[in-house]
Amino acid sequence: xxxxxxxxxxxxxxxxxxxxxxxxxxxxxxxxxxxxxxxxxxxxxxxxxxxxxxxxxxxxxxxxxxxxxxxxxxxxxxxxxxxxxxxxxxxxxxxxxxxxxxxxxxxxxxxxxxxxxxxxxxxxxxxxxxxxxxxxxxxxxxxxxxxxxxxxxxxxxxxxxxxxxxxxxxxxxxxxxxxxxxxxxxxxxxxxxxxxxxxxxxxxxxxxxxxxxxxxxxxxx
Length: 221
Known about the structure:
By secondary structure, this protein is an alpha+beta fold. The chain has one domain: NADH Oxidase. Helices cover 43% and strands 13% of the residues. The protein has 8 helices and 4 strands, in the order ααβαααβαβαβα. Helix 2 packs across helix 6 (138-158). The radius of gyration is 18 Å and the shape is globular. The mean pLDDT is 94.
């Protein structure tokens, strides 16, 4: 089955080719992904697609905010600390990324350059922003958003496209709101970079890890 193949093939893309992605292709992906399940079929998601010159401007402004030392302040706050088990996995993938880029742990300048690339959304030509009504119950809507995004990213993988769900794309909501027509009654949830993956880039080819099944599963019979 194609789905089974895409589940294993899909990965976070951290280097995109500059080739544009047509709006028609993104529209088709959204149209197909909207069949993802949601609580009570509420379908709480709303989207804004950033493409073309607007995307180039947004990437530059987002990276400028990072380089200027502006503290991230997303509209949906992350916890200050992850549980240790999650923290160790997060550190592991960070180590894999830096190793693939041949960046030593203590090379702060090279690491900052990589973070600049991240806030430039890895040079992706398009961004899908997920917006939520401020009055909705966040716990359920974020679960629904995750279901939609997984479906969207698998479908994109089927098309040969790459994606990266990026907190870095929404860490500066004032930048987004200054340059995009985002309604005041909407919360900026998350963004997904979309584009054609550069599979020659080592950062897109390092070996990924997943926890063993027995580490995360309890059987009750």
